[in-house]
Automatic annotation (TrEMBL):
It is an enzyme of class 2 (transferase). InterPro entries: Acyl_CoA_acyltransferase, GNAT_dom. This is GNAT family N-acetyltransferase. Gene3D superfamilies: 3.40.630.30. Keywords: Acyltransferase, Transferase. Signal peptide: none annotated. It comes from Pseudopedobacter beijingensis. The keyword Ribosomal protein does not apply. The lineage of its organism: Bacteria, Pseudomonadati, Bacteroidota, Sphingobacteriia, Sphingobacteriales. One of its GO terms (molecular function) is acyltransferase activity. Residues 7-156 form the N-acetyltransferase domain. Its EC number is 2.3.-.-. The keyword Transferase applies.
């Protein structure tokens, strides 16, 4: 029987920070020290978090809810938005099996339980996944060669979009 577990990482979880740093380096060329430092900061802040999904005890996927994402450097006008779903990653041999969707839903559930009304993301690779998960497009922008869609998801039913 397959056992899926979600773990909210803690500030002293160096082993998992290093694993995630390796994943982010291979996928997006984000320097390891930058990822480790960021994960230490995020996990120490109660308004942000990083989740690790394990399958039968083996790490498979990760992602988090961040107050700051790199897009804000290029588009400062978007700083009005907090709570960004970011850096969702699934190991290559487990992709297209629903683990990315599971971790996104788990991040959304934690966010909703925390009272967060709306969360945001940007992507140039996984738009269809997020549409299937109920995200809506806010706008599209070009960043260099990338055509990026900015999306949002309303978590609390407060009649506001």
């Amino acid at each position: 029987m397959t056992k899926i577990n979600f773990q909210v990482l803690l500030p002293n979880d160096q082993t998992n920070f290093e694993l995630i740093a390796d994943w982010y380096l291979s996928e997006w060329q984000i320097p390891r020290d930058k990822t480790i430092q960021r994960l230490q900061t995020i996990t120490a802040d109660p308004s942000q978090f990083q989740i690790l999904l394990t399958l039968n005890g083996s790490p498979v996927s990760t992602g988090g809810l961040y107050d700051y994402v790199g897009l804000l450097d290029k588009e400062p006008r978007l700083k009005i938005h907090k709570h960004w779903l970011a850096l969702v990653y699934t190991i290559p041999d487990k992709r297209h099996q629903g683990y990315g969707a599971l971790i996104c839903k788990h991040i959304q559930d934690i966010s909703k339980k925390s009272g967060i009304e709306t969360i945001y993301l940007f992507t140039d690779t996984a738009e269809q996944l997020y549409k299937r998960l109920g995200w809506s497009e806010m706008e599209r922008i070009n960043i260099g060669e990338r055509n990026v869609v900015i999306m949002k998801k309303v978590l609390l039913n407060d009649n506001r979009e």
